[in-house]
Amino acid sequence: MELSVKAYGKILVFGAYSILEPGNIGLVVNIDKGTTATAQETQAGRIVIDMANFAIQVYGVVKEGKVELTKSPEIVRYIENAVKYTYKYLSTIGVEIRDVRLISYNDPEFYVEKKFKTGFGSSATSTVSAVAAILELHGISNPEIVYKIAQHAHHKSQGNMGSGYDISAACFGSQYFISQEPSREIDFLDDLQSKDYIITRQKFEWPLFFFPLIVFTGKSASTKELVQKILKFKMRRPYKYTEFMKEYNQINLNVKQALDENWPKKIIYFLEQSWAMRKKLGKLAHVPIEPEPMTMLMNDMKKNGALTAGLTGAGGGDSILAICSSNENRDKLIEFLNKKRLHIFENVNIVNKGYEVLS
């Protein structure tokens, strides 16, 4: 038996850092590129993890519901934890464990020149697709269970950090994400068996009057390192951090209201305020969230076809989201960016897709 699951990547439009705090809001949208996990049942008496993009294979066995790998290179940790937590769940509910070969493949848009990450969330998509594929192979099709297992696994892989918005988007599609106290800190199995699902998301559809374009900045960023530095600022100046986050979240709520009202000028106004607050946070914490050359580039983009442009997610690099008022202005922007020899993702589109079982 063989089947494949595809989980789609993401762009965090607004709410970076803010959604680290319970009750704060962010907007995350899917793109139509992602990670495909293919689960093949074997009779080999072992588990095989095959990371096709990196030509890496890792082998292991399951003993009393626990996965033991012969080696564990750093690049495998997200899929490794996805497999371990999934098998722990299957063992607990009494499902007979099957030998599996798991092949994980990222669409090429997740990297530029096969080495620079673009910030589309490959760690989340590889985790969700792996969990869902293994569960489906064992006859379990339940997005909420996939979400909870993937949340715990990803949280562990991230060093017990992160809000989980990227996992939520990979499971359920584009959404307003409301952060909550991290349930990953409580017992894994107790959390899975709980019926008390906290509503943390509201579906979102991209406005048809906005024409997006995604551009690689030329530099990859480490979200984990950026978040760690912001959390150090929180520890150093807790009152300043708390007051800042209140103001920041209110602006993000204003963006949501403008989007709900379908008011283009108001959306752009508050979205730019949100991005400006993120940059201000970087200055307060002495963290390069939006380096000046990137600010200058985005200002030039606004003079050449874009209504607005901002760094996605935590900033620091990765990709820029530009928003245009028409396809004609989008084409004008593409012409400008081509002259600057920047990498443009012309074939990456914003969609609303949770993970899909392909076969």
Indicate the CATH class of the largest domain: Alpha Beta
> What's the N-to-C terminus distance?
10 Å
Order of helices and strands: EEEEEHEEEHHHEHEEHHHHEEHEEE
Radius of gyration: 20 Å
Low-confidence stretches: none
Q: Major beta sheet, specifics?
A: 10 strands, mixed
Number of domains: 2
* Helicity range: 40-55%
Please give the number of β-strands: 16
Give the strand content: 15-25%
Overall CATH architecture of the largest domain? 2-Layer Sandwich
Give the rounded overall mean pLDDT: 91
* Structural class determined from secondary elements: alpha+beta
Number of helices: 10
Q: What does this 3D model show about the protein?
A:
This protein is of the alpha+beta class and 359 residues long. The chain contains 10 helices and 16 strands. It folds into 2 domains: 2-205, Ribosomal Protein S5, domain 2 (2-Layer Sandwich), CATH 3.30.230; 211-351, Alpha-Beta Plaits, CATH 3.30.70. The radius of gyration is 20 Å and the shape is globular. Strands 1, 2, 3, 4, 5, 6, 9, 10, 15 and 16 form a 10-stranded mixed sheet that branches. Strands 12-13-11-14 form a 4-stranded antiparallel sheet. Strands 7-8 form a two-stranded antiparallel sheet. 47% of the residues are buried. A hairpin with a 2-residue loop joins strand 4 (56-63) and strand 5. The longest helix is centred in the C-terminal third of the chain and has 23 residues, at 238-260.
